[in-house]
TrEMBL record:
PANTHER family: QUIESCIN Q6-RELATED SULFHYDRYL OXIDASE, SULFHYDRYL OXIDASE. Keywords: Signal. PROSITE patterns: PROKAR_LIPOPROTEIN, THIOREDOXIN_1, THIOREDOXIN_2. GO terms for molecular function: flavin-dependent sulfhydryl oxidase activity; protein disulfide isomerase activity. Residues 1-28 form the signal peptide. The keyword Signal applies. Gene3D superfamilies: Glutaredoxin (3.40.30.10). GO terms for biological process: protein folding. It comes from the Eukaryota. This is Thioredoxin domain-containing protein.
Length: 145
């Protein structure tokens, strides 16, 4: 709407400012034990069969930074040490399965190009790398590949 002098009215300017200031709603995507991660690379663990939650770039932050603790293994599917460690990590996940309300065991495949940003943001420089999330992620143990 234009006023008679050829300028925009205050009402129009207010509406335009309101539209540009409102944030866009972003839907949170959280992983579950049945979630199949997005990406092209194979996984070392079977989604829905093992008590290990699969994460990817889309689900990492919304899932891990929730109201429970997480033990996350950052791995590469081509890594020999990761493959050798997988049966032990799988056994550990089965042993702590009943702890699910308190702590969740999860994995993310850093070899998949889709997940590279999440791995880089978490300081992953070698595989496998284990991190625990309480209030923030920190390293508790790692293995060189």
């Amino acid at each position: 709407m234009r006023s008679p002098q050829g300028t925009m009215s205050i009402t129009t300017i207010s509406c335009l400012l309101l539209v540009t200031v409102l944030p866009a709603t972003v839907e949170a995507v959280q992983s579950t034990f049945n979630y199949v991660p997005i990406g092209q690379n194979p996984t070392l663990y079977t989604p829905g069969f093992e008590p290990i939650m699969h994460l990817d770039q889309m689900t990492f932050n919304d899932t891990v930074f929730s109201d429970r603790a997480f033990l996350v293994e950052f791995y590469a599917d081509w890594c020999g040490h990761c493959r050798a460690f997988a049966p032990y990590f799988r056994q550990f996940a089965n042993m702590v399965r009943d702890w699910y309300p308190v702590v969740t065991v999860a994995v993310i495949n850093c070899a998949d190009s889709f997940n590279q940003a999440a791995c880089r943001e978490n300081g992953v420089t070698y595989f496998p790398m284990m991190k625990v999330r309480e209030r923030k992620l920190f390293v508790i143990g790692s293995f060189f590949c």
